[in-house]
């Protein structure tokens, strides 16, 4: 690395600066750079297998090979040094790899799961069935190249000349780039990006930006002033990325174009100049590839428009068409795009640069170890280019023309949301993708009687607690079963039948329960809008009085243990005797049996109170049993009051303190 930096510092680039034409400058630059890189950074080939871990680099493989060579030759000292070096490099590479992977992971569990599966080798590779069936990769490579070129096979291209649109363009000059601007942009180049067709690695630009800034500033200024995009930077190396896990044809691959890193830096400056001239002319309906816009802004704009339309015209429908253009980036017509740029009135030198950028482009497809022959690009913008997104949204800008004012389009890149699809507004070769195009109708339907009745039932169901509803349900079930068995009419019940039902309940229930079960009769009649048949009914009242007199009100219950009983009992017990201790413990259990579930467990996680409810720290387990510490209950305040008086020997205290 130091040798390369020293060589670039000592290299004389005066031949590049002395050249007049931008094309010659670039050719001279490559004639100087390539021999230096070939001499100091020779191209190395290494084997990469599917069994290799993701952190294994060619350098580590080379060290492993040297270690094995030293081992086979019996060089103990050399082997030990290489062994330690391999271990150090492996640990460092693995640490760096996992740190980067974890840093790139999103919060979603799906991304973590897929990454872990990929690391342990459990995920299925995104393979290609075509590769397993065809042996001739060269023929496949050519077939891919023909397929991608078939999009513009019928295009008859006519390149505009600056004289045709000179009256529409601005004659303002492009300011020269400074050495600092070029240096800063070279430094921003991502060193991990793939190398383009010129075989100059991107990290050379980012690391040696100081050495290359001066000569590249001279070249970029010449390109902007002469309106030239050099031919060396218009050659694309296309790599294929499968759209599906197992693609079965060329149409299931996405093309990614790899171009020169030097050309991408020039694209950055062109994009900046282009946005200066056109950003205020791009319609607000476009939310893709724009600063401050995203899918979120597109969604907010769309839903707000629907809301306003439905509220303003509740009796009208909103018709929405979600349109996706098929191979949109590959079908942008260059002539239409250049016309759009001229209508926007951009600078003449900038228009000439963009015209040169779109002209005479060629692509080669790489498939496996094969590279297809060069084929011209007559339409479209390269996928992966810096300038491509901006040119694309400018090409899509004309879609808003001719749309009536009552139709609001919303665009995100090649996706269009519209209430009407106008075929005449589609530019060039673009066509809709029928599989991804959807249609939707939004209506404001006022609440019907059925929906209102359903809401009434919903709110009425919340009148009582769940335990009360369960009691009413069992009472209603018993009442209906008796009526169905005897084939009586449950509503509009006669006095005689009600008396029979009360006598029937005597066999299993006491008086108080019978009265509760008869309440369901009143509720059923109220639901039907009828009067309560039990009201001021002498026959039913005398029947219930007789049941009460003969069978009694209810079963007599023993009084519970109260704080007064505990206070009176405590002085009489001898806690040195085991039976007294057991008896006192039984009384305490009886006293604290007033516990309620709400005092121990919260209804919802948000209602948890660490002072009132049980926590993990409140449970302690021993060999002889367990101890549960309760800090709050229905009766604990009585117990605390009792204990305080028991210690002081005072009389009865105030409950609840």
TrEMBL record:
CDD domains: RT_nLTR_like (cd01650). GO terms for molecular function: DNA binding. Keywords: DNA-binding. It comes from the Eukaryota. Residues 222-484 form the Reverse transcriptase domain. This is Hypp4473 protein. It comes from Branchiostoma lanceolatum.
